[in-house]
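Dear colleague,

As promised, here are the two records you asked about, laid out in our usual form so they can be pasted straight into your sheet.

NAME FIELD: protein one
SEQUENCE, THEN STRUCTURE:
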Amino acid sequence: MNLQDTKKRNDIILIICVVVAAVICFAAYKLYFNKSGKFVTVKVDGKVTASYPIDVDKTVTINGVNGGKNVLKISGGTADMTEADCPDQTCVKKHSIRYEGETIVCLPHKVVISIDHSSNDKTDDDAPDAVVK
């Protein structure tokens, strides 16, 4: 066996190892990190304004900053921004979301829709008792 054949064989082994590693990483990501969320959280200007269960179909109008309006549709375990009166419509063009950590953002209205594992409803009981400086 000459040097050329050895190099070709090593190249093929390297390519197979890289492909196998990529498949293993992809499978691990799908199994461990791509979990379906349970709640759709709505934030306007950085503040949580609502949280809805993702398994209950609902259509909600969200009032963003500067009088902007967005329409959120929760259906079939997914959340989707179906309408917005912002000029670029990027939030409407984004695909629907269903997994924890996924978001839909409308920058002109400062609206962020995210999928979470737990409800982010804020009550007075969640407020801190004291602040230390």
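NAME FIELD: protein two
SEQUENCE, THEN STRUCTURE:
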Amino acid sequence: MDTADVAAMGSLDFWLDKPLRVTVIIIGAFLLNFAVRIIIRRTTTKIADGETAKLEKLETAKVGKKDPRYWLMQDSPIAVVRRAQRAKTIGSVLRSVATVVISALAVLMVMTELGFNLGPLLASAGIAGVAIGFGAQSLVKDYLSGLFMVAEDQYGIGDVVDLGEASGTVESVGLRVTQVRAVDGTLWHVRNGEILRVGNSSQGWARAVLDIPVPYDADVEKVGDLILRSAKELREDEEYGRFILDDPELWGVEALTGESITIRLAIRTKPLEQWGVARAMRARLKRDLDRAGLRIPLLNQTVIRDGSTVVPAGSESHSEAADANAGAKS
């Protein structure tokens, strides 16, 4: 470096040229990133705080079933909180994306100011980007699917879901992988890009559907009244009544065979409570049907003894049938 170059670097014009522009670019990128992150944070925080306030308002409100807000309150303990969490999650993703984009633009502008030829670099980056894109397209698909799943609130931690090959309780929701714990304890790691459908049993409300078979010669109207009365008694129960949202519905005869008549009962419940309500309803029906002298009909069966004797199952006990067969042979 000669004396002229040193003098040029020491002059005011030099520092007001490239170094100043580079400094302005870096400071501008930092301030822009800071401002964008603040805007995103305040927006998502406002949404989250608004949902939380709505939850508190709904929890303190005393409304009846005829009030339109009653059905809004049914999903408030879970849905409102999840919407707040979703807003915060999306805000975090947007802040990260904004930082990456602004930083990349700032680096390119600085390199341009320093005299680098970006043509070959951008061409190489384009070729490399295409190659990496083909190799990482499944990864990009996973992240995009995870982002949309979070944004659309398709499921959340604690939900009981059916994802096709895996079903159970969601333990973790990430942008790339979702973890689902099956009933037998197996922890499934499902890539978000491979999820084509989601069945969620935890959103809004659920329904316990019971098919009750009764003897073919039973009075359908009387049996239906008995079943419906048992279901209404369950709704008044202190333990299970708080899980039932509506009056039980008797949908009528669901199936008809030569042995039985199947009557369908439907009970709308809070999310994830349909199985407990269904078990309690079956136990109550067993008691009430026994009191009414009604039994679940058995399929017609035939027992073959010694390769020749045919005994209709249910017409007599096996011991009585054996004695009858022995007398016939003697």
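A couple of things worth noting about protein two: The first helix runs from residue 3 to 10. Confidence is low (pLDDT under 50) at residues 65-76, 313-322, 324-330.

Best,
R.
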